[in-house]
Amino acid sequence: MEPSDEELCRRIAARDTQAFELLVERHQAAAYRLARSILGHDEDARDISQEAFLRVYQAAEQFDARSRFSTWFHRILVNLCIDHQRRGKWWRKFVSLVGPGEAEDDQPALDPPSQAPGPDLEAIRGQSGARLRAALALLSPNQRAAVTLLVQEDLSSKEIAAVLNCSESTARVHLHRAITQLRKTLKEE
Question: Which fold has domain 118-189?
Fold first, then answer.
């Protein structure tokens, strides 16, 4: 039976490197996706997600298991993302208008017809994704984090509050303002 994340964290506090490697393996992809969603930039997301794991290793003994490991880890990761944005590095980055796996100069494939969506639908999806990424970039760091935690991580407002280290009502306000702003921005375009 696989050890729980909480057990792995206890072992990491005792400097068990195998436990650390297992924990990183379990959460690395999700940590990157969350950081990428908040920051909007691949390189920064990689750096920040790696920094979050280093913080876990350094502070594992501070994890008291009153909450789930994932809540504690999300708090570390989201705080690092918000701090990164507050330091001003985020303004130099831009929201890519070309989505993952897309390229502006892609040549059409000469494969047999498939049941996949046609190029017109793919173009619409690409444009919609770009509009959404641009709208998300206009939100405050806390609003972007709250929406990302809700949509991508499927956390409740109580769990979002724990990650953002605020009251549940404040987390709901962040969500409400973010959704209102997203609706307004996307409607204007």
Answer: Arc Repressor Mutant, subunit A (1.10.10)
